[in-house]
Specification:
Blueprint (H helix, E strand, L loop, with lengths): L9 H10 L6 H11 L4 E4 L6 H12 L9 E4 L3 H15 L6 E4 L5 H8 L5 E4 L1 H9 L10 E4 L2 H6 L3 H10 L5 E6 L4 H7 L7 E4 L6 H4 E7 L5 H12 L4 E4 L3 H14 L3 E4 L5 H13 L4 E4 L14 E4 L6 H8 L9 E7 L1 H14 L4 E3 L14 H4 L8 E6 L9 H9 L9 E6 L4 E6 L3 H10 L9 E4 L6
Parallel strand pairs: 1-6, 1-7, 2-4, 2-5, 3-4, 5-6, 8-13, 8-14, 9-11, 9-12, 10-11, 12-13
Antiparallel strand pairs: 15-17, 15-18, 16-17
Helix pairs in contact: 2-3, 3-4, 6-8
The protein binds adenosine monophosphate.
Length: 472
């Protein structure tokens, strides 16, 4: 059935037609009537499936334009996603005169307070700022009809559980709650289920088969040769537009500074940049003024760019789920795409794990011979041996063999911390219920702080520094 045959207001149909949305995508076919029917929903769907419109269309349809206070709140994990959602809602609600406020941190709260006085119908916000606005009573929630939690799994991964709890506690209970998530873990259901009214669960994962839409390949390249290779590859591939993902702000910056010299249509995006600069980069990229965007995972979710032919992973992401999100930037609806991974020797083990995670194998291109390590000192045997000249501090992590972890899991997690390499690790000794790790003494504090945020195979563990003898 086409959108024009739906019982939607003409203003909505007109906007959809101008956006080029002729018929609903699978998630919309299922979810749109449920929401219009006043049901709560829990939807497992990948980014790129059309889930934003799946909730934006029925919400824009049901908004009472003359009402003053916000009727819908959408909670998103990142500013970029919040901006993207607001843009999608504005596009769909344009002819109904629907006003949207986007609210996130690092912007003066006073600006949001003032914007709320202009009576937006929908507020799209990140959890921290939303909590602030509600608790200070700048945001009146009395007329709330819809609460949407978008990318709920990411909201939890980023540690927003407590804030969500606080927000849910003050919102009116008589409302519809719509939850969208790429994965459906028990803990997501745990935080929200009590607040939902007999939700309908929808799983449309199988509909988005990125495996078929996106050509994925990888090359084995030594880390120090990647930049040269990238240049040759871009010359050969001639992308219409590409995002090049790296794992840290420093790496993005260093690739950017080299690539700028080859191509002046190059931009970058990472969390260390001012919000204004970030927004400018995104809109220049979307408008087609930039051909290449070098980015951290900040760009891996929610960024919709038409005609993005290539996604290039300069490094494999820390989390495998990010891989799916990253490559999902290309191969959008009715498009196909190419994802190219540059995989160093150090990363090739991770590539094998990625294959297990994906359930299929990414084709390896280039020389048949597997890459050998540049310095053989990085092999498994010596990896954890203490360097006699280095001073270490010992960290105790309350996770051991009983948690089904291996020494390699500790090493992978710790070397994901920017600035920490294998060489900074000494002995890793695993016990039944804890593990001790020797860390370069100069980095121990930084590692402690970062480890409190990082997870080992998806779980957080208590950590403690063991005071070395020379400090006692
Ligand atoms: P997301 O909301 O992240 O899942 O992304 C959906 C992408 O598909 C966006 O680029 C939308 O503009 C596009 N889209 C959503 N609904 C439709 C539709 N019915 N027909 C064509 N494209 C759509």
């Amino acid at each position: 059935m086409k959108f024009k045959e739906y019982a939607l207001k003409n203003d909505i149909k007109r906007a959809l037609s101008e956006l080029g949305f002729k018929e609903p995508l699978e998630v919309q076919k299922i979810v749109l009537p449920l929401i219009l029917d006043g049901k709560d929903v829990v939807v497992k769907s990948q980014t790129g499936s059309g889930k934003t419109a799946a909730f934006a269309i029925p919400i824009c349809e049901s908004i009472e334009v003359e009402e003053k206070y916000p009727q819908a709140i959408v909670i998103a994990p990142t500013r970029e996603l919040a901006l993207q959602i607001a843009e999608d809602i504005n596009n769909i609600g344009r002819y109904r005169g629907i006003k949207t406020l986007v609210a996130f941190g690092k912007t003066l709260i006073k600006d949001h307070r003032d914007a709320l006085k202009r009576y937006p119908h929908i507020v799209v916000a990140t959890p921290g700022r939303l909590k602030d606005l509600v608790e200070r009573k700048f945001l009146r929630v009395d007329d709330l009809k819809y609460l949407v939690l978008d990318e709920a799994d990411e909201l939890l991964n980023l540690g927003f559980e407590e804030q969500l709890h606080d927000i849910l506690a003050v919102l009116p209970k008589k409302r519809n709650t719509l939850l969208f998530s790429a994965t459906m873990q028990a803990r997501i259901e745990h935080i929200i289920m009590d607040d939902m009214n007999d939700p309908v669960k929808v799983d449309i994962e199988s509909e988005v088969d990125i495996h078929k839409k996106i050509d994925q390949i990888y090359y084995e390249i030594e880390e120090h040769k990647k930049l040269d290779f990238l240049k040759r590859m871009l010359d050969y591939e001639k992308p219409t537009r590409a995002i090049i993902f790296a794992n840290t702000q420093n790496k993005v910056q260093s690739i950017y500074s080299v690539m700028c010299k080859w191509n002046d249509e190059t931009g970058m995006l990472h969390g260390g940049m001012e919000q204004e600069q970030r927004m400018k980069m995104i809109s220049r990229f979307k408008r087609g003024e930039l051909k290449y965007l070098i980015a951290t995972d900040l760009a891996s979710r929610g960024l919709h760019v038409r005609n993005l032919s290539h996604v290039i992973n300069f490094n494999l992401p820390f989390e495998f789920e990010s891989y799916v999100h990253r490559i999902g930037r290309t191969g959008r609806v009715n498009e196909t795409g190419i994802a190219i991974n540059l995989c160093s020797y150090k990363e090739s083990e991770k590539m094998d794990e990625l294959h297990d995670f994906l359930g299929y194998t990414i084709e390896r291109k280039g020389p048949k011979k597997r890459l050998k390590p540049a310095g053989v000192e990085n092999t498994k045997k010596t990896r954890f041996k203490a360097d006699k000249t280095m001073k270490y501090e010992q960290i105790k992590i309350y996770a051991g063999r009983q948690s089904h972890l291996k020494a390699g899991d500790f090493m992978h997690t710790i070397t994901r911390i920017p600035g920490v390499t294998n060489a900074d690790l000494g002995k890793i000794v695993m016990h039944h219920d804890y593990t001790t790790v020797e860390i370069n003494r100069n980095l121990a504090d930084q590692v402690m702080t970062s480890l409190r945020r990082l997870k080992l195979k998806g779980k957080s563990y208590r950590i403690q520094k063991i005071t070395p003898k020379w400090k006692r």
